[in-house]
Specification:
Blueprint: E1 9-10, E2 26-27, H1 39-54, E3 59-65, H2 69-80, E4 84-90, H3 106-113, E5 117-121, H4 131-138, E6 182-184
Parallel strand pairs: 3-4, 4-5, 5-6
Antiparallel strand pairs: 1-2
Length: 194
C-alpha cells in the first residue's frame, strides 16, 4: 500500500458503538491511493496476480459484463505485470446476433488500449454462467480468475505489487485507436477462439 498517498486515518467510533469490541481504529481511504485500477477491485487482485507470477503464468483469463470494472482492472494490472490478458465479456446480444463491433468507450476502451484480447459471449442469465466457458479455456491458458475474483481464502489484499498509475500506458489518448482483436464465441461446443 502506498501510505504516502493514503496515510492511515484515525477512526473515532460513534458514542453508540463504545460497547462493541474489535472496532478498527484506523482505516485507509481508497479514493486517496492514486490508483487508476479501482481501490476495492485491486486488493485481492494484487495477491491473485502475485500468485500467478510465482507460478510462472504468462496469461490471465477473467470474465464479466461488457463494461466490467473488474475486467478493466485485471486488464490494466496484467499489462503492468507483462501478462497477456483474455477477457470473456458477456454481450447483451443472443448468439446469432453476436458482433465484434462493440465500440471503444469507458472500461472497454481502457481494456482494449492495454492490449487485452476480448472474446464476446452471448447473453447469459448471469455472469456465473461464464464459468463453464472459462474452464474450457483454462487448459490452453495458465491461470483462471473467477469473475470479480470471488475467492474463499481470506487473502485480503493491499497495494504494493504495482504502483497503480495508468499514465505510462496511455501516452497519446487523443489518438487512441481500438485495433485489438475482438472475437465472438457463440457456442461452448465450438473450440475457444484463442
Amino acid at each position: 500500500m502506498d501510505v504516502n498517498n493514503s496515510p492511515l486515518h484515525q477512526y473515532e467510533p460513534p458514542n453508540w458503538a463504545s460497547s462493541l469490541k474489535n472496532i478498527p481504529q484506523h482505516f485507509v481511504k481508497d479514493d486517496l491511493t492514486g490508483c487508476a485500477l479501482s481501490g476495492n477491485k485491486v486488493r485481492k487482485l494484487e495477491f491473485v496476480l502475485a500468485d500467478a507470477l510465482d507460478k510462472r503464468c504468462d496469461t490471465v483469463l477473467t470474465g464479466g459484463a461488457l463494461h466490467s470494472n473488474h475486467c478493466r482492472t485485471t486488464a490494466i494490472a496484467a499489462k503492468q505485470l507483462g501478462l497477456k490478458c483474455y477477457l470473456l465479456l458477456q454481450s447483451r446480444e443472443e448468439a446469432r446476433q453476436l458482433t465484434t463491433d462493440i465500440g471503444c468507450k469507458g472500461n472497454l476502451l481502457l481494456s482494449r488500449i492495454v492490449g487485452s484480447r476480448v472474446i464476446l459471449v452471448p447473453h447469459l442469465q448471469c455472469v456465473s454462467d461464464l464459468k463453464p466457458m472459462m474452464k474450457k479455456m483454462v487448459e490452453e491458458l495458465h491461470v483462471w480468475l473467477p469473475d470479480g475474483i470471488s475467492r474463499n481464502d481470506e487473502s485480503g489484499g493491499l497495494f504494493g505489487l504495482f504502483d497503480g498509475r495508468i499514465d505510462p500506458l496511455i501516452t497519446s489518448s487523443q489518438s487512441a485507436k481500438c485495433e485489438n482483436e475482438v472475437f465472438c464465441w457463440r457456442d461452448i461446443n465450438e473450440p475457444p477462439p484463442c
